[in-house]
Recover the amino acids of this structure.
């Protein structure tokens, strides 16, 4: 089951919220895509297939869409919530990417959240457009390098890290029954970041959830997310987002 809600539309773009409750393991019937754009997950995990390529989608990896492509979906993990953005050719640059996977770093996630906040404010012609343009700029720099020799390994590792911190690279490699050397190299080669950076990116995403919900106890937040202390939390968020937790909280309040 799937519901689609129109969030904002103008001649040059359309933004929709998509919520799925499907639990089918196999691929769905093909669905045509009408425009350029991308899909970013807010919650959940699912599979996307198009043009002979597969992307395992979750809040840290989205995908780029191109007009005329047929897409199929699989939902072995249950439901998910996504934001689907389609833009006209006047806003799109670069044509169809060689690899549709889009790594969602913390800056891109924050830009995504800012876009949704602008939608809530209903200032479509100025606020939403401005945030959308910023999101497009960041997304254009976030393409995952082509070539996914270890796609299944990375999907399993990402799922394990997001479910619960396994306690380190070695325990994670043991859990996945793979060499720690191969696991470490796979993250750098396929996502362009280290496994440590990915793990911190997941923790920063959880911190953004709490800050957006009004969290003020940074020391408690640091402890809950496994940071050494509040200073470690603040440094990590600043590295990934480019802002302090206090500055991020102010964005969510405006």
């Amino acid at each position: 089951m799937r519901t689609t809600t129109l969030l904002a539309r103008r001649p040059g773009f359309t933004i929709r919220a998509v919520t799925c409750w499907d639990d089918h393991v196999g691929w769905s019937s093909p669905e045509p895509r009408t425009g350029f754009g991308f899909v970013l997950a807010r919650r959940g995990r699912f599979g996307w297939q198009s043009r002979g390529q597969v992307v395992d989608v979750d809040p840290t990896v989205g995908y780029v869409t191109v007009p005329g492509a047929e897409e199929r979906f699989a939902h072995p993990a249950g439901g998910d919530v996504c934001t689907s953005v389609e833009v006209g050719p006047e806003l799109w640059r670069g044509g169809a990417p060689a690899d549709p996977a889009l790594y969602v770093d913390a800056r891109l996630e924050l830009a995504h959240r800012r876009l949704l906040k602008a939608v809530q404010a209903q200032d479509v012609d100025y606020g939403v457009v401005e945030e959308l343009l910023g999101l497009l700029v960041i997304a254009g720099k976030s393409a995952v390098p082509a070539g996914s020799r270890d796609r299944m390994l990375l999907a399993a590792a990402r799922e394990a890290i997001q479910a619960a911190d396994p306690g380190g690279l070695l325990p994670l490699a043991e859990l996945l029954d793979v060499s720690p050397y191969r696991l470490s190299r796979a993250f750098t080669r396929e996502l362009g970041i280290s496994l440590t950076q990915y793990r911190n990116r997941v923790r920063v995403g959880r911190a953004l959830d709490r800050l957006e919900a009004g969290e003020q106890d940074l020391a408690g937040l640091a402890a809950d997310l496994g940071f050494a202390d509040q200073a470690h939390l603040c440094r990590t968020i600043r590295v990934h987002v480019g802002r302090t937790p206090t500055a991020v909280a102010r964005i969510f309040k405006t």
